[in-house]
Amino acid sequence: MPEQTARARSEDYVLPNEGEALWFTTDLYVAKLTGDDTNGAVTVFEVTAAPGAPPLPHMHRREDETYYVLDGEFEFMDDGSTFRVGPGSVVHLRRDRFHFHRNAGAEPAHALVVYTPGGSIERFVAEAGKPAADRLSLPPTFDEADVSRLISAAQRYGFETPPDAG
């Protein structure tokens, strides 16, 4: 394997342990490419989903969301249909439809998640999430203050929850 040395981050390529890491709800989101990197075309996150977290149904008004499952098992709901997928699966969630993802297994699950267009989504995750200094630790608790921050940011970034979400 080629030796990797410390370097300034490039928008042209991102090494395995590079990218801003944020806890978003109980999932770890690592920004691999941002809208700034891609002139607004896409945002790419490497997501580590913690097991046992409840699903959070929502709708994006501004971007589509596509998952490529690297390992583990994910459960998705898309426009009322719920299904499970494993490694190698691709799931495309279109904007303007209610959906969710969650880890359906007992171990952390990993996916690359691509948002089109890019730009707005990483600002939302940064505002609603918490910096992750340690990418290997367990997720922090998701408390009332986190819920308030998430709801406030969601309204500014074009997200909606179903009317019956509580």
What keyword list fits this structure?
mainly beta; 166 residues; Jelly Rolls; 3-stranded antiparallel beta sheet; 7-stranded antiparallel beta sheet; single chain
Short description:
The protein contains 2 helices and 12 strands; from the N terminus they run ββββββββββαβαβ.
How would you describe what is shown here?
This protein has a domain at 21-133: Jelly Rolls (Sandwich), CATH 2.60.120.10. It has 2 helices and 12 strands. The longest helix is centred in the last third of the chain and has 13 residues, at 144-156. It has a 7-stranded antiparallel beta sheet, with helices on one face. Strands 7-6-9 form a 3-stranded antiparallel beta sheet, with no helix packed on it. The chain has a two-stranded antiparallel sheet with strand order 4-12. 13% of the residues lie in helices and 36% in strands. The model has no long low-confidence stretch (mean pLDDT 89). The protein is mostly beta strands and 166 residues long.
